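Protocol step 4 of 6: structure prediction from sequence.
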Amino acid sequence: MSTPTVPSVPSVLFVCVHNAGRSQMGAAFLTHLAGDRVQVRSAGSAPADAVNPSVVEAMAEAGIDISSGIPKVLTVEAVRSSDVVITMGCGDACPYFPGKRYLDWTLTDPAGQGVAAVRPIRDEIERRVRGLLAELGIPASA
């Protein structure tokens, strides 16, 4: 009798233009809800210098600290090594590789917005992340 093989941990990449808002929130929620059951990355096609302070505040209200987050540049390798690539407004800047699962989450850009405007974006990202976990068959831990 053969022993069942343990599937590898799925990897998810969140991509937006500046990697300072939407993709940071997506990655933070997925990390918070899935722990080490999913490998999580985020990047931007034109990364900002820092994470949007209103996004940091909105996530803190949800009990998630992303104050030490640093926007990262999108690399071809990050896309190549991810199972699921979630674009959040990066348009054609995101490289495409056959065989990857791409999801495009159309969300309002929180750039230049106050925390009151970021909260509904945050809540929608959390809802979609929970849906993604359900599709991947991974129970949310929170």
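Step 5 (inspection) to follow. The longest helix spans residues 115-136.
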